[in-house]
Amino acid sequence: MLENTLRNRLYQVARRFRQRLYWWNVAVIALVIAIVAALMLPSVTSGQMDAKSTATVLFAAAVVMSLIALVITARSYRNPARIAKAVETKYPTLQQRLITAVSVSDNPELRSGYLQQQVIREACDHSQQYAWTETVPRGQVLLSRLSGIGAVALMLGVLGIMVFETEPAQALLANNPHELLNDVTVSPGDTEVERGTNLLVTARFNGEFESLVPSEGELRVVLRDGSESRLPMKQNLLDPVLGGLVVSVGESFGYQVLTPNWASPMYSVEVFEYPSLVRSDASIRYPSYTKIDDKTIEDTRRVSAVEGTTLVWKFLLNKPVASATLLNQQGESVALNLNDDGATAESNEMVLKDSQRYTLELIDDQGRANKYPPELIVRTLPNQQPKLKTTAAGDVRVSPLEELTVTAESEDDFGIEKMGLTYTFAGNTQEVVLASDVGRTRKLSVEHLIEFESLKAEPDQLLTYYFWAEDVGPDGNPRRTQGDMYFAEVRPFEEIFREGDPPPGGQPSQPSENEQEAEKVAQSQKEIIGATWRVLRDGITSEFKSDVNLIAEAQHEQIEALDTLAENLQDEESLQYVSVARDAMETAVEELAAAESDDLEAHGRALAAEQLSYEGLLKLRAREFEVTRSQQQSQSSSSSSSAQQRQQQLNDLELEQDENRYETENQAQQNSAEEQQERETRQVLSRLRELAKRQEDINEQVAQLQSALEMAEDEKAKEEIERQLKRLRDQQQEMLREIDELDERMQSPENQSSMQEESEQLAQTRENVREASEALQQNDASKALSAGKRAERELESMRDEFRERAAGQFNDAVREMRDAASELDERQQDLSEQLQQQQNEPSPGLRAGTEQKELDQQIQSQRDRLRDLQEKMQETVEQAETAEPLLAESLYDSFRQTQQRQVDSRLEETSELLRNGFGEEAMQAETQANEGIRELKEGLQKAADSVLGDESEALRRAASELEQLSRDLEEEIREANAGESGQSNPSEPRERSGEGGQQADRQQESRQQEGGPQRGEQSGEGQQQDGPPGDPQSGETPSGQRSPGELRDGQSQRGGDQRGDGQPGEGEPTGSRSGENENEQAEPTAQSGQNPGEGQGQSTRQSSEEPNGQMQRGTESRNSSASRSRNAANGPSSSPISGDGFREWTDQLRDVEEMVDDPEIRSRAARIRDRARDVRADLIRHAKAPQWDMVEEMIAKPLRELQRDVQEEWLRRSAEKNALVPIDRDPVPSEYSDAVRRYYERLGSGQ
């Protein structure tokens, strides 16, 4: 009885479990069916599926799954022990009685015992006191039941919608298929599309048919040859629209939209092309004087040629056109001649006079113009005058028996016809031809010996001479370029130098007053001769008349000064000389008056008269003078230039070897020219490096596509490969344009002489690139790869040549050895730490053997790297013994010290001791090896610094350049944003930069540290610049010669006391050149107001601060780069991204890449430059303003971050280099520590 009661109670609990489980199963089944029905509803609505059949199937599936769930649930919870355990969990007060009772009741043998019956009775009593059915709460059962009923209701609702809502629409679709066509809009219908573009076809269901949109459809495409294909069309989200895409339309076709229940009419698509340029060739016929053969440059849009060259453009178009014209920058149009087929055009012969940019405008017979008119650039190079430079010439005083050797150098871009010397003596002019028919751009040195004895020279006579060179001008006629005029004064043969007694105070004796005045007049006359010569040499210019008037006024003042001098003279012979000189001056004035009417012959007669007057003035000089040597000789100052010359001659008598007349000449301008040439070399190197890398990448992709093309099995794969080849062809075409740009740079006047051979080599490389491009156009991957490989090898060869030229022969080798030594030291430090850790924490068992084996392998690898480094060092020492002896010595010292320390032996010993278990001894040997490697690293670092320079200096210059680049770019972005918004916010770029005041302060401090001393020196130089703005080298005008501009300041500076503009410093020969003319381009035009004497201190500072190697890669001054960038930002046309300043801006960014060695910095700079180039290309291609937000995010922001990182790295390295170090780092020995402490205590107490 008790057992039945207990089982009944447990059955009630199990039934609640089964109810809860069943209703949850019903809820899940109903929800799944409802979701499936909802997903199938669009297909049913569109008629693709029958509503009743689908609903019936889903409902039947729900019923079947519910029955299955019922069966499974009915068989669940049949184990009384499991139910009893659940009840015990709910009611712990049972204290295992129920579980015991269930187990006893299942065993008939144990059921009859008293204790067993008592346990069963107590369990039954507990079931009467507590509701065991609450083991499964009533709320859970009710919730499961409601969930199941709700899910079933939802399922029935969805099925009802499927049946009752879609059936009318399906009936309408079946009964009225033609009416549906009027309510579907197919776009674009009949249309025209450009070849190569994509076509989107859509079918929109309107009105009451919006709910009948099928989820999928087909787009039937029928080509003109009858072949057809079908493309899928899909519904876009829930819009009543089907859409399909035809990719890259290549020919005309028809199309039709198909669905399971209807089809659209057939529509036609016609394909057209905008007229465009396929290829442009340039036929060039050079002037005869260039001696260059005619040539045709294929597939180019840039042409550089000398003025007078005849150019004919030939264009291959993609289709016949109705008209083709070239439009230049001035808006003038040049009509092109169309051939019969209309697909080729040719220009008339164009004689190059000025550089031009043309835009090719095409219009076809439908009136369509080319979308992106290409730009053709014609750069006209000037036919430069010969570069003439005197190497050993100047104003001298010679004896009547002396032989004077004068030399000069000259070079020309297209060859020198003649080169010679003209001298005038005793009224006779003699012309000497020293060379003729010199090859193109060859540097020619000539020398001539003037024998005064054969000229029967007499004291106080004057010989003037100058060098000249003839080439062929643009008009085809000979053109003469004349150099500076120099003076050779014949001194008395019996001129005596004797030493006299010094005056009181040790000061030098002063010449007489008449001698000083005569010297002043002679010196001023010498300057007038120089100015007259300059005007005569320059020919008729806009300033000719004003210059002649100034010279005439100066000559009048000379006559007045000579009259004043004559009043103080009593010697008859001297008065006679004055009379001769005065008559010659008056003649000069008359001839100058006649020359005002642009008469160069009269100007030449005036020059002869001026020379005659100067010769008369020479006779006024005293023939004998005393020279006093005082203790302050180094600080003395002669009162006349003639005294300086005599003093110089006296010093020459005491020299045992000839000295260089120009050893004190200011070299700042030559350094500036060298820096500019180095910069050009680096720019070319950077472009060659980039082109070589890009060609290598293209070749790799072509090789991969060639293999893929051979393995392609179907036409679809081949078409995809051909599309990739077309993209590579576009890249190859872009390379072709950049090679043309590089060639234009190499042919510029400043690079023509130094890069002529490389330019010719680049022309051959260009031909290979062009062949590769044509092969890619024909899908001939094999031929393209062959031509591309040739171009790659040639570019790499040129890159290596320029790298040696730009960085030195051993820079790369030293840099590699330095990096290898640094890596060797880092690995040795890691090895030391591992060895120390192994000794401090030994590992048991097999693990210890594995770690020891790994250490042994690392030591062997370390030995291999050390041997490779030593072999490289030895090889470099042998190569550098002759070219770089200091580098060879430094490397050899490091190599020898490493050998003496036996670093390799110590590493071998460490490995051997580790294998034998001698850990402590191995650590001692490793410590010795570690010290040797550290010393090797320090030695190579010193050697690298001697060759490459201090890297912190390069970082400083790079940070300066980046700061300016960022400022220019931010200025353009700010102006562009202001133009769009109608207002300008000057602080916006700075706010975007996120750098804050600290970064600005660091940048300002950097500029002050760099620019402070230079500004001071430049200020000092500026005070000495008295010459005219038009005189590029007034500060180096030799004494005795002034330009007409200098004469505007009057004659207040006449005399030997003047040390201002045009007066050489002490120790410089007093030349009489008429300034630095524009033809002598061998002497650059920077730093004009600084003569050799005045600039000596600055030259010393510059030479002591100028770094080598790597530091020289940034030697362009900050001021010049800043001015370049400011000029680039002055107007919209000079903006760095959208204006003409792009090339200069990217050049400066290339300079940054070349200044630093850090690969990460160089890579980041290159990425910024590539992004800028992409933006620029899009700007040119689409002719619309850039997206400035994208420019800010992709270019400006990374540029600021790069500038900040470079600045921080420079500050860090500068701090490490200039860190304060204690004078005494050694600790006080322990035995003396007490005594030292007591000493400081007494010292502090004042005892």
What characteristics describe this protein?
33 helices, Immunoglobulin-like, alpha+beta, membrane, 1247 residues, six-stranded antiparallel β-sheet, 55% helix, 30 strands, single chain, coiled coil, eight-stranded mixed β-sheet, transmembrane helix
Task: Describe this structure as you would to a colleague.
The chain has 1247 residues and is α+β, with helices and mostly antiparallel strands. The protein folds into seven domains: 2-169, no CATH class; 179-272, Immunoglobulins (Immunoglobulin-like); 277-381, Immunoglobulins (Immunoglobulin-like, Sandwich), CATH 2.60.40; 387-498 and 521-626, Immunoglobulins (Immunoglobulin-like, Sandwich), CATH 2.60.40.10; 677-807; 812-948, Up-down Bundle (Four Helix Bundle (Hemerythrin (Met), subunit A)); 949-1009 and 1109-1247. It contains 33 helices and 30 strands. The protein has an eight-stranded mixed β-sheet. Strands 9, 10, 12, 15, 16 and 17 form a six-stranded antiparallel β-sheet that branches. A hairpin with an 8-residue loop joins β7 and β8. It is extended and about 170 Å long. The termini are far apart. Mean pLDDT is 74; it is low at 172-180, 496-500, 622-641, 649-667, 983-1132 and 1220-1225. Residues 496-523, 629-684, 738-885, 897-1157 are annotated as: Disordered. The chain crosses the membrane at residues 21-41, 53-72, 146-164. Residues 552-598 form a coiled coil.
